[in-house]
TrEMBL record:
It is found in: Cell membrane; Cytoplasm; Mitochondrion. The keyword Cytoplasm applies. Its EC number is 2.7.7.87. It is a peripheral membrane protein. Coiled coil: none annotated. GO terms for molecular function: double-stranded RNA binding; L-threonylcarbamoyladenylate synthase; tRNA binding. Its main location: membrane. One of its GO terms (cellular component) is mitochondrion. It comes from Sapayoa aenigma. Cytoplasmic and mitochondrial threonylcarbamoyl-AMP synthase required for the formation of a threonylcarbamoyl group on adenosine at position 37 (t(6)A37) in tRNAs that read codons beginning with adenine. Catalyzes the conversion of L-threonine, HCO(3)(-)/CO(2) and ATP to give threonylcarbamoyl-AMP (TC-AMP) as the acyladenylate intermediate, with the release of diphosphate. Participates in t(6)A37 formation in cytoplasmic and mitochondrial tRNAs. May regulate the activity of some transporters. Residues 3-193 form the YrdC-like domain. This is Threonylcarbamoyl-AMP synthase. Belongs to the SUA5 family. One of its GO terms (biological process) is regulation of translational fidelity.
Amino acid sequence: GWREAVAAAAGALQAGGLVAVPTDTVYGVACLAQDSAAVRSIYSLKGRNGAKPLAICLGDVERLYRYCRVNVPDELLRDLLPGPVTLVLQRSEELNKDLNPFTSLVGVRIPNHPFMRDLARACSGPLALTSANISSQGSTLTVSEFQDLWPQLSLIIDGGPTGDIQSPECRLGSTVVDLSVSGKFSIIRPGCALAPTVEILKQKYGLVPESS
């Protein structure tokens, strides 16, 4: 059942494991962001360049204020989250120094996916979250598509396909937008929700693209 799956995944994470999870975009791999050894394991699993940052995943907007310095209205956060958007903000002192030690920023994800939100709420600190694939390979929409990673994972949560496996748009991942500079935004990755995200930032909140 659902509760058992959330409890099993939370237990595997608390034990330092890596767990494959469905999100509202593509499949992800999560670990506890405050667990430095688990963060290192994610990089080695993906064969990922250590200078590429990991996002954190939370269950609710309220928790974001603990790990980030926010310089946009709360209403803006709630217009975009939960959803297929990663917001890049200044990180706070609360966040593990070993997570992305090369940058003062952090990307925050609150997926619009009930399992992910329940799992994030079941863990004491934030999750570190990245896509379930080898770096530079395509993102995955089903658990069978990342079979080569299975042996290194503590647990795999199969939520079925996260999108239309025939559609390239479904593999774009979240739209990543930097909101760390007051009054401005910059798009780091267009992702799957670019147009509605930009419309909210420009029309409703009057933010200007950082290049302008």
